[in-house]
Write a structure and sequence with these properties.
Length: 388
C-alpha cells in the first residue's frame, strides 16, 4: 500500500504507516506518575518549615508515623468470630463481635477464629464439582465408610459431625492442635469404627442408630478433651447405613423376611389378646355358675335336712297322726295335678256309651264322679273303679 495513503510517510505528522509509531490518541493524555510524585514532594517541602531534614520536619514526620502506627490497632470482629488478643505471643484476653482495639504491632496481635460458627465434617462422602450438572455432587469414599462389625460383617456407614469451638476453649483450639478439621475427622472415623466393631450388623441396620450416634459423640468428646483441643461435638448424624453394594440385594431380602416375621408375630399376638380374655371370661362365668349351683344345692340340702329333722321330732311325738298326715300330703301331691274319673256301676253296664272319656281327657276338665245304681246290685256291695 503506498505511503501517501497511510498519512505521508514515517516523518509526517499524520497517521503512520506499517513501520511507523501508529496513530496517536486525540483525547486528554493520562497523568504522569513521576510528575505527580514530584509535585507531592514539592508541596510537602513547602509545608515543612526548613525542609525535610529540619528538626520541625522530622518531628512532624515522627508524629504522623506514630499516629498511623497507633491507628493500626483498630480491628473488626465479625458476628461469627471471636477476637483473641495476644501480647508478645501470649493470650491475654478475648473480645466479642464489633469494632475493637489492641495495642499496635508488634506489642499486640489478634487472631480471629470462627468460634461462634458450627462447622460440618463429612465422613464416607465428599462433595465434588460436577460440570454436567453445573454444580456439586456427593461422592462416596469407601476407604472411610467401610467398617467391620462385631459379627464379622462389613457395613457401609456415611455420617456427619457437627462441631464448634468451646466458649472457654479458644486458646486450646488455637495453640494445641494444628489442623482442627483434620483432627475432628480422624477422631470421628476412629470412634465410629470402634462403636460399630462392638455391635452386630442387624441392630446397626435397623433400630440402633440413635444409640450409635450418642456413643460416637461421647467417645469423640472424651478423646478431644484428652487432646485439650477446645472443640465441642454438638451432634453426630448417620446419613446412610447399608451393607456393601455387592450384597445389598440379599440383605434387603433378609430385612423383608424379618419384617414379615414381625408382622405375623404381631397379628398372632393381636389374635391371642382378643381370644384369651374371652376364654377367661367364659371360664370365670362357668366357675361362678358352678359356685352358685354349689351354694344352692348346699342350701337346699340343709333345708331339707332341717325339715326332715323337724318332721322326725313331731313324728316321735305322735307317730300315727304324723304318718297319716304324710300319707295325705303325698297323695295330694301325686293326684293333685291329674284327671280322675270314678265310676260305680254294675258289671253288665259299659262306660263308653255314657261318658266321652277322650274329650274329657283332652279338655282336662275337673274330676267328675258318676254313680249309677244297678237294679240288681245292692247298696251294701258297691263296686268302684278309678281311671287315671
Amino acid at each position: 500500500m503506498p505511503w501517501k495513503n497511510q498519512g505521508g510517510g514515517p516523518w509526517s505528522s499524520g497517521p503512520k504507516g506499517p513501520w511507523g509509531s501508529g496513530p496517536q490518541p486525540t483525547g486528554p493524555r493520562p497523568p504522569d506518575l513521576e510528575d505527580l510524585l514530584r509535585r507531592g514532594q514539592d508541596r510537602l517541602q513547602q509545608m515543612l518549615p526548613g525542609g525535610y531534614f529540619s528538626g520541625m520536619g522530622i518531628a512532624l514526620i515522627l508524629i504522623g508515623a506514630l499516629a498511623i502506627w497507633g491507628l493500626s490497632g483498630f480491628f473488626r470482629v465479625q458476628p461469627d468470630e471471636l477476637g483473641v488478643v495476644l501480647r508478645f505471643g501470649k493470650h491475654v484476653r478475648d473480645v466479642g463481635p464489633g469494632l475493637r482495639y489492641h495495642l499496635p504491632y508488634p506489642i499486640e496481635t489478634v487472631l480471629l477464629p470462627k468460634a461462634l460458627r458450627v462447622s460440618t465434617v463429612n465422613i464416607g462422602m465428599t462433595l465434588i464439582d460436577d460440570p454436567a450438572r453445573r454444580g456439586r455432587t456427593m461422592r462416596d469414599v469407601p476407604e472411610e465408610s467401610l467398617m467391620l462389625t462385631g459379627d464379622e460383617n462389613i457395613v457401609d456407614v456415611d455420617f456427619t459431625v457437627l462441631w464448634r469451638i468451646k466458649p472457654d476453649g479458644v486458646g486450646d483450639y488455637l495453640f494445641n492442635i494444628q489442623n482442627p478439621e483434620g483432627t475432628v475427622k480422624a477422631v470421628a472415623e476412629s470412634a465410629m469404627r470402634e462403636v460399630v466393631g462392638r455391635g452386630e450388623i442387624q441392630p446397626i441396620l435397623t433400630g440402633a442408630r440413635t444409640t450409635i450416634e450418642q456413643n460416637v459423640q461421647t467417645l469423640m468428646q472424651k478423646t478431644l478433651d484428652k487432646y485439650n483441643s477446645g472443640i465441642l461435638i454438638q451432634q453426630v448424624q448417620m446419613q446412610k447405613v447399608d451393607p456393601p453394594a455387592q450384597v445389598i440385594d440379599s440383605f434387603r431380602d433378609v430385612q423383608a423376611a424379618r419384617a414379615d416375621l414381625e408382622r405375623l408375630q404381631n397379628e398372632a399376638q393381636t389374635y391371642a389378646n382378643r381370644v384369651l380374655p374371652d376364654a377367661r371370661g367364659r371360664a370365670a362365668q362357668i366357675v361362678q355358675v358352678a359356685e352358685g349351683y354349689k351354694e344352692q344345692a348346699i342350701a337346699e340340702a340343709k333345708g331339707q335336712s332341717a325339715r326332715f329333722l323337724k318332721v322326725y321330732d313331731e313324728y316321735k311325738k305322735a307317730p300315727g297322726v304324723t304318718r297319716e298326715r304324710i300319707y295325705l300330703e303325698t297323695m295330694e301331691k301325686i293326684l293333685g295335678q291329674s284327671d280322675k274319673l270314678i265310676y260305680d256301676g254294675g258289671p253288665s253296664q259299659g262306660v263308653v256309651p255314657y261318658l266321652p272319656l277322650s274329650e274329657l281327657t283332652t279338655r282336662r276338665a275337673p274330676p267328675a264322679t258318676t254313680t249309677q245304681s244297678h237294679p240288681q246290685s245292692t247298696p251294701s256291695h258297691p263296686q268302684s273303679g278309678s281311671t287315671r
